[in-house]
Write a structure and sequence with these properties.
Elements (H helix, E strand, L loop, with lengths): L6 E6 L3 H12 L4 E7 L2 H11 L3 E5 L9 H9 L4 E6 L4 H9 L4 E4 L4 H12 L4 E2 L1 H4 L2 E4 L4 E4 L10 H11 L4 H8 L3 H15 L4 H10 L6
Helix pairs in contact: 2-3, 7-9, 7-10, 8-9
């Protein structure tokens, strides 16, 4: 556990005001040092690669289609970085995906700043941190030694890749755009789309988009 060294932190949130406030407040805590900030998810991957921070605070406020894609990218480019998500009360599918991606914590924005600094020091010390309201929606699986949803979303049957494809399609992207964004072939994206619709028993893209909104995977 880091005790004598400061926790080096990268902050990413779409709202500049939030980023600047968090940077200022966290830097007042002797345990923390903010090494970089950004409002762009793609830029957060570059900054994580450059700075190799102890912790990455990633805002989930606006359900942008790339919000979860960058979690895997950051884990790949900066393996030692612990990722903490923060945002409003999230739909089950958002929490489910956060758990699948093995993020280290989730802090709700109705918590105090002290909860956020506690989360940072906890995850850097090798623990996980979830706001009490979120923890009440989880159960711990001792066999897998991992947290899971008490009541899985209907979307839990989809793989992480299928969730990425569904989120992008629900945001109005074409198969060609999804393929380009995820570095897949159009044939592969079409195959994912077919499997998604088959698993969910959905028959057209309009119904698919409505379902994704209703389940909280994307914002209206």
């Amino acid at each position: 556990m880091i005790s004598t060294q400061q926790c080096r932190i990268l902050i990413c949130d779409p709202h500049r005001l939030i980023v600047e406030l968090l940077e200022r407040v966290l830097n007042l805590d002797a345990r923390c040092s903010v090494v970089a900030t950004t409002t762009e998810n793609e830029r957060s991957v570059e900054l994580a690669t450059e700075h190799q921070p102890d912790a990455v605070l990633l805002g989930t406020a606006d359900s942008r289609p790339d919000a979860f894609t960058v979690v895997g990218q950051i884990k790949s480019s900066s393996p030692r970085s612990q990722i903490i998500l923060f945002g409003d009360a999230s739909p089950d599918i958002v929490l489910d995906q956060a758990l699948r991606l093995k993020t280290s914590g989730f802090v709700l924005t109705n918590e105090s700043i002290g909860s956020l600094t506690d989360a940072v020091t906890s995850v850097v010390g090798g623990e996980q941190y979830f706001s009490p309201e979120i923890r009440n929606r989880l159960s711990f699986d001792p066999m897998r030694r991992a947290w899971q949803m008490r009541s899985p979303s209907q979307l839990a049957s989809l793989t992480n890749r299928q969730l990425e494809v569904l989120r992008l399609l629900a945001h109005g992207q074409s198969v060609k755009e999804v393929a380009r964004g995820l570095h897949l072939s159009e044939k592969s994206v079409d195959s994912h789309k077919y499997r998604i619709m088959s698993k969910l028993n959905i028959h057209d893209r309009v119904e698919l988009a409505r379902f994704a909104i209703r389940e909280g995977l994307v914002s209206p």
